[in-house]
Specification:
Blueprint: E1 2-11, E2 14-24, E3 29-33, H1 40-47, E4 55-60, E5 63-64, H2 70-75, E6 78-81, H3 93-99, H4 113-119, H5 121-125, H6 136-148, E7 154-158, H7 166-181, E8 185-189, H8 193-199, E9 202-207, E10 210-216, H9 217-222, H10 224-231
Parallel strand pairs: 3-8, 3-9, 6-7, 7-8
Antiparallel strand pairs: 1-2, 1-4, 4-5, 9-10
Helix pairs in contact: 3-6
């Protein structure tokens, strides 16, 4: 579904990514792991067309993404839940969701307001509230719902539960499990390794802009040395 090969990206003269490669199959949940500043968000920005790579290739269902504007990348079926949520503060919950609604591939069972409200009941109760009136957890649910309303083939979640209360984190991961069960492909960035091990199929570990380890959840769970070396504080 998504294949990234030898990706190199920079901000001005400062190179951040050095040959990053990863692959996500249809229906798979993958993760990008690593400490802060290791290149996870830069990888996402490069995939989404928000940052132009200096080298390497990015393909989605066989179509090259490198030269596409970010809105064209989104139209192909990549949905982004950005770091920091970035919802519209002066729109209501309902308006935030409707603003992004699209079913460009004529899915038989597209995402609707009702389906999002079924996934996150808090949003149904708050649908008339403005974005800036929501808690951090509700804003994250709204950011996920907004991305789902684009009916993506691949959902990318950057810092899925950062700064959220434990009960909200549990609810977010329940939603990820449900989306996975429905066959949605997902790329997740988060720091909750135990939760990621339970839900993900494959993990990519970044260190200073390079993929230094790849494996499945059983391998990551059994390898405490890798966790400590690349994720420990």
């Amino acid at each position: 579904m998504l294949e990234v090969k030898g990706l190199e990206s920079s901000y001005g003269l400062s190179q951040v990514l050095f040959g990053v490669s990863l692959r996500i199959e249809a229906g798979q949940v993958a993760t990008l792991l690593g400490r802060n500043g290791m290149g996870k968000t830069t990888t996402v920005r490069s995939i989404m067309g928000m940052l132009r790579p200096g080298a390497g290739s990015i393909s989605f269902h066989g179509k090259s993404l490198q030269q596409l504007a970010s809105y064209r990348v989104a139209q192909l079926g990549l949905g982004l839940v950005p770091e920091g949520r970035q919802i519209f503060p002066n729109l209501t919950v309902r308006e935030n969701l409707v603003a992004t609604a699209a079913n460009r591939r004529n899915e038989k069972d597209p995402w609707t307001l009702e389906k999002v409200f079924d996934l996150f009941s808090n949003l149904k109760d708050r649908q008339k509230n403005f974005g800036n009136q929501l808690s951090g957890g509700e804003q994250q649910m709204l950011a996920i719902g907004r991305a789902l309303m684009t009916n993506p083939r691949l959902l990318i979640m950057d810092e899925a539960t950062e700064g959220l209360a434990p009960l909200i984190r549990i609810e977010i991961y329940r939603a990820i499990q449900r989306l996975k069960a429905e066959g949605l492909s997902i790329l997740v960035i988060d720091k909750d390794v135990k939760a990621l091990i339970r839900v993900a199929d494959v993990h990519y570990m970044l260190e200073k802009g390079r993929v230094v380890w790849t494996g499945n959840s059983a391998e990551l769970s059994a390898n405490e040395d890798i966790q400590h070396r690349y994720l420990g504080v």
